């Protein structure tokens, strides 16, 4: 399609849809028109991709995730369709700014943070690598809450993202399945004496899928992200006459639980988990049966991936369908289940590892509980006398009245992976050590990655242009080619051009900050960024204490020779996470204090941006000079904002945690500021129980001064919160070693300050960060999953038949 044709089609579609001309239409109407042109353009490829997979009996992977966090899809679909430039220019000629239409689309925020965003980066990469892979999740009516600050406190508002409809989804009534929730099950012998389950009571819910096309990058592949929504089947209507009964069921898929790396243990959450697991597994089986292949070979057609423990019931549901519905023997079914399933662990934080009480599970999915009991019984039976008794006790699925979901996922699959080298090593040596002894071959690492298309091409067009002009365009398809930049680290023209792109991005972020927070910041200052969920282990508090220190130092000596710095935070706290909300309050109060203080004007600014989400990340990341990755070593499984920020030329201040270790390896010690305890030292402290925060506080006058500022009135309006945080450090012994790492952190900050003063050297460091970020592409990550775990292949025949370039 050329520009002229696009303009003609656009005007025609607008007339058909709204009986309007461009000049009469609202931005929303224009957005709807453009979206509808796009979906009809890729739907043919979507159908053909689907058909080709079927006709080739292609093995497909199914990524089960309770969260997906795509953000906005308009531009990313345009880019992947190969339409971006054409549409941008075509619309411009019609007097329409594409970016005005972009603003109309609400973020699709069916995820909390890293885990959900990773799932969406994977969807982009799986399609872009031409791999046959699908997403499977929940279509929440309300995504992650909207964050507002009132009196500097976080307030949560509902995210009504579906209010104006959703352009990209297709409701597939014909693919609906029923899910049984609750009731009683007993086993009754049939005429041959085989036991089969009989269900009594409970409710039958209808799961209706909404499919969204996952458009591959200029390769004519369109995969499917299938999200399930609950409806009451017509034949069950009678049972839901009362409003309360209706509501309690309709609520089931209505809200995303707003906790990142934390489990609340709520019955509704367990029901959500079973709902999307059962619907997804049933629809995989139904598709497979339509292929008329031997059931014994299902592992050659389907790979089911369990993303964190939330979908771990896939193991039992798959067993249920094979044994109860397909009359397969337990042994054959179990062998197939293990071959089909694989599992990713995303955390070592104890409070995030799911355990469900037996009672609750019996209540929500009684047959699944029975099957888990049988899996557990056979697991113990097989190992007794072979393995150490205590090890069996520690690894079995059911213990002390609780069902351990990670154990189910590991025992019921052929692969367990962590998300960064360090994390995968810790799984083997500490967290899942017992399982590693049992199944050494099942453990592997898949370091996380990010969708380069969204996080450079779309988010940072200024830098992308410089890259094109310097190293050619191949990096857009093959991110390893970013390495070519290293040839230019002594080239002042390139260094200046990259710096100019950064400056442009900082200017537009500064404008956003001015209009959204009313704070004036200079694009000449260092933009220092920490963007991630608010969590004690991520240590936003460490960052804040350093800011307080700088502030106090500047108050004492306004002439202190430091580079002007703007500290930028973006973070949501789980609504029930009291401590995290106190940190937000205190950061906001410190910001009010500092930003209003004339004596330090121009040296120090603190900005906490409201409602951090994917779209805001796309604005912040390209403008960052410094990336804060300061979690306590061993606690952050991987991190992914660390990768996005380095890719966009930010210099990282980091502990040796998660993927920071691999970033250090990629850029070398001279191009990153490493500080703090190592994971080994942290474990030493745990073992010897010899960390005493109060000693540090009493000995170190700087720490004293800074920590006291929380309670001595220096910062207004934080009487309660300041005390609470003070107590967490001093009275409750500083669980995440903030004070232990403080001095080293300040030194790292100082070295960054110094490096920035040498402009040329800083620009070289920045260039090396971008140049070495290629390995963190999620294209690489999903290819490794495809090769090592899922055993799926791209459909080459598909490309040959239909050509690979434009639509
Ligand atoms: C989550 O976002 C993560 C882990 C988890 O168990 C649950 C949720 Cl909702 C995060 C990790 O904290 C982060 O380190 C990692 O980069 C990300 O998952 C993706 O693997």
From TrEMBL:
N6-(pyridoxal phosphate)lysine found at: 644
Cofactors named for this entry: pyridoxal 5'-phosphate
CDD domains xrefs: GT35_Glycogen_Phosphorylase
Family assignment from sequence similarity: Belongs to the glycogen phosphorylase family.
GO CC field: cytoplasm
GO molecular function, one term: pyridoxal phosphate binding
Organism: Enterococcus devriesei
SUPFAM superfamilies in alphabetical order: UDP-Glycosyltransferase/glycogen phosphorylase (SSF53756)
Keywords assigned by UniProt, alphabetized: Allosteric enzyme, Carbohydrate metabolism, Glycosyltransferase, Pyridoxal phosphate, Transferase
Top EC class for this record: transferase
Top-level taxon in the UniProt lineage: Bacteria
PROSITE patterns listed in its UniProt record: PHOSPHORYLASE
Record's function text: Allosteric enzyme that catalyzes the rate-limiting step in glycogen catabolism, the phosphorolytic cleavage of glycogen to produce glucose-1-phosphate, and plays a central role in maintaining cellular and organismal glucose homeostasis.
Protein name (Swiss-Prot/TrEMBL): Alpha-1,4 glucan phosphorylase
Record EC number: 2.4.1.1
InterPro entries: Glycg_phsphrylas, Glyco_trans_35, Pyridoxal_P_attach_site
Pfam family, one: Phosphorylase
GO-annotated biological processes: glycogen catabolic process
Catalytic activity: [(1->4)-alpha-D-glucosyl](n) + phosphate = [(1->4)-alpha-D-glucosyl](n-1) + alpha-D-glucose 1-phosphate
Gene3D superfamilies in UniProt: Glycogen Phosphorylase B (3.40.50.2000)
């Amino acid at each position: 399609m050329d520009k002229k044709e696009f303009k003609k089609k656009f005007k025609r579609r607008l007339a058909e849809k709204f009986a309007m001309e461009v000049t009469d239409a609202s931005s929303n109407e224009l957005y709807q028109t453009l979206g509808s042109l796009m979906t009809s353009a890729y739907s043919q490829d979507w159908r053909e991709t689907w058909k080709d997979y079927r006709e080739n009996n292609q093995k497909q992977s199914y990524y089960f995730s309770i969260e997906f966090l795509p953000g906005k899809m308009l531009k990313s679909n345009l880019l992947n369709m190969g339409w971006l430039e054409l549409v941008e220019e075509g619309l411009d000629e019609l007097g329409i700014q594409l970016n005005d239409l972009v603003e109309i689309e609400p973020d699709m925020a069916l995820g909390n943070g890293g885990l959900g965003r990773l799932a969406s980066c994977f969807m982009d990469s799986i399609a872009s690598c031409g791999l046959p892979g699908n997403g499977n999740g929940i279509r929440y009516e309300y995504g992650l809450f909207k964050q507002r600050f009132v009196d500097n406190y976080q307030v949560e508002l509902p995210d009504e993202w579906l209010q104006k409809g959703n352009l990209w989804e297709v409701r597939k009534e014909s693919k609906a399945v029923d899910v049984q929730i609750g009731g009683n099950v007993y086993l009754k012998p049939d005429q041959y004496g085989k036991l089969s389950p009989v269900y009594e009571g409970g409710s039958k819910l209808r799961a209706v899928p909404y499919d969204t096309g996952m458009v591959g990058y200029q390769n004519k592949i369109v995969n499917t992200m299938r999200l399930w929504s609950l409806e009451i089947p017509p034949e069950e209507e009678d049972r839901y006459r009362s409003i309360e009964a209706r509501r309690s069921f309709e609520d089931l898929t209505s809200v995303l639980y707003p906790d990142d790396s934390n489990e609340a243990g709520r019955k509704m959450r367990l029901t959500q988990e079973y709902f999307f697991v059962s619907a997804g597994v049933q629809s995989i089986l139904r598709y497979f049966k339509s292929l008329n292949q031997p059931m014994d070979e299902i592992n050659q057609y389907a790979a089911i991936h369990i993303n964190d423990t939330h979908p771990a019931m896939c193991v039992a549901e798959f067993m249920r369908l094979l044994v109860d519905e397909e009359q397969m023997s337990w042994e054959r079914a179990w062998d197939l289940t293990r071959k089909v399933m694989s599992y990713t662990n995303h955390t070592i934080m104890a409070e995030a590892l799911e355990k469900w009480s037996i009672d609750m599970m019996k209540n929500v999915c009684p047959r699944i509980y029975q099957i888990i009991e049988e899996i557990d019984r056979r697991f113990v039976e097989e190992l007794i006398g072979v393995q150490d008794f205590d090890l069996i006790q520690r690894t079995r699925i059911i213990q002390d009245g609780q069902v351990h979901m990670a154990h189910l996922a590991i025992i019921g699959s052929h692969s367990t992976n962590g998300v960064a080298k360090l994390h995968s090593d810790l799984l083997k040596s500490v967290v899942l050590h017992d399982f590693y002894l049992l199944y050494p071959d099942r453990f592997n690492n898949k370091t996380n990655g990010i969708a380069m298309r969204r996080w450079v091409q779309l988010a940072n067009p200024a830098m992308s242009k410089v890259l094109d002009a310097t190293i050619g365009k191949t990096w857009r398809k093959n991110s390893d080619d970013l390495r070519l930049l290293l040839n230019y680290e002594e080239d002042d023209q390139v260094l200046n051009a990259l710096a100019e792109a950064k400056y442009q991005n900082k200017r537009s972020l500064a404008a956003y900050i001015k209009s959204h927070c009313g704070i004036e910041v200079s694009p000449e200052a260092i933009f220092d960024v920490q963007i991630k969920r608010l969590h004690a282990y991520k240590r936003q508090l460490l960052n804040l204490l350093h800011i307080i220190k700088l502030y106090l130092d500047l108050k004492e000596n306004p002439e202190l020779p430091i580079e002007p710095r703007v500290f930028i935070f973006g973070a949501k706290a789980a609504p029930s996470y009291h401590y995290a909300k106190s940190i937000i309050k205190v950061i906001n109060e410190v910001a009010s204090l500092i930003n209003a203080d004339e004596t330090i004007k121009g040296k120090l600014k603190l900005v906490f941006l409201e409602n951090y989400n994917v779209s805001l990340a796309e604005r912040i990341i390209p403008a960052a000079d410094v990336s804060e990755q300061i979690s306590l070593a061993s606690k952050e499984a991987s991190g992914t904002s660390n990768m996005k920020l380095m890719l966009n030329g930010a210099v990282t201040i980091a502990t040796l945690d998660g993927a920071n270790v691999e970033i250090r390896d990629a850029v070398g010690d001279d191009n990153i500021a490493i500080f703090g305890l190592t994971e080994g030292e942290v474990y030493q402290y745990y073992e010897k129980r010899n960390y005493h925060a109060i000693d540090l506080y009493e000995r170190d006058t700087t720490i004293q001064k800074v920590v006291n500022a929380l309670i001595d009135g220096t910062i207004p309006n934080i009487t309660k919160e300041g005390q609470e945080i003070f107590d967490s450090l001093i009275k409750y012994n500083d669980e995440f070693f903030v004070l232990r790492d403080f001095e080293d952190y300040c030194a790292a900050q100082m070295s960054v300050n110094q490096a920035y003063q040498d402009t040329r050297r800083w620009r070289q460091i920045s260039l090396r960060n971008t140049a070495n970020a290629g390995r963190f592409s999620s294209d690489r990550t999903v290819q490794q999953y495809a090769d090592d775990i899922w055993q799926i292949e791209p459909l080459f025949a598909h490309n040959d038949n239909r050509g690979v370039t434009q639509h």
